[in-house]
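task queued by scheduler; priority normal; single chain, no ligands, no partner chains; default sampling; output format set to structure tokens
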Amino acid sequence: MITPEQIRAKSLRKYTSFLQTLVRNETFDRIVITGDKSYTKSSLQEFEREIRSILSQSKDKNGYGYSLDFQKVKTKYLGTQDLPTAIYFDTEIDFLKYLNKEKEVKVFEQNIRKIIDELPELKEWIIQYPSKIIANEDKWEDLIKVCQYFLKNPIPRLYLRELPIKVHTKFIEQNQGILKELLDLIISDNVNKEEKQFEKRFNLKYSEPQVRFKILDQEISKSYFQGLNDIAIPVGQFESLNLPIKRVLVVENKTTLYTTLTLPKMTKTIAIFGSGYSINNLKNAKWLSDIELLYWGDIDAQGFEILSQFRSYFNQTRSILMDRETFDKFFEYDAGTVSYVTADSFLNEQERELYDLLKTNNWRLEQEKIPLEYVRSFFDKLE
């Protein structure tokens, strides 16, 4: 026999379809809860207790809730007994009071009327996701304002907080998840669907990450940057950089970036601070495809994973000072950070062998632990 807990659980599962009928403006139809018409327990006392429990939450007992139809059924152990064969809600009030959803549904109906009046194109989305109306029940006035603005201005080219919408300054930032769903529907022709970042997806300005680099050629420093040699610019500007460069050295750590200024003179060369996995900021700098690229990272699992990532963007990348000879010469048995990824797709045979060794043993030799004299000697030969 079905229990009161099972009746409630099944009733809650009917709630979404009930909300959908409200959006479609359909009349209420009896909601039926399926039950078990058999009874196999042998204790009459237990049977009577279960019947009382079911009746305690019924409409007959409380004036609202589910109604019960009984039928005489012959049981295996208790003979013929009256068992509930039909469980149903006859009215909307019975159903909502039982679930304690009256107030929630009242707000839901107010919101869907408001949304459909202002943005009728969202009606099918509401039918599909009525729970999202409830999850954002106190935000719909402002969500509608944002949607209406984008309908009129699908390509704003403004920063989020510049948008002339009368909502809290942080409202859009704090509600990007639901707004993404809505805007994807109502301005679909103007959405950059391949972009995940909210600002890029919806044609907004955004604060770009910066690329920091050092000019290692004094002539380039004087001619293009008035003698400055330590520079940081937005990614977009870096992507369009036009300098007489033949070589780029990418270093993983900031400390090593400072070291590059003490290296032997390197003509037509700059050093870029890769900043670990932020190396992906460089992937759209197409001009890097046509020059010599050197990558110098820590000799640990992550260092080779970042190298592999960078080489996936620019396959001519050559690793430097990340070889077995350098590792054996200066390794001090420092522990690394455990890696759970597999990223050797763009490593050559020697790099892959060292990567496997480092990953297996969780070893690390940081860039800054390689003596400067050794580094200088390497770059002397490089030029």
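post-processing summary
- The mean pLDDT is 91.
- Residues 4-100 form one domain.
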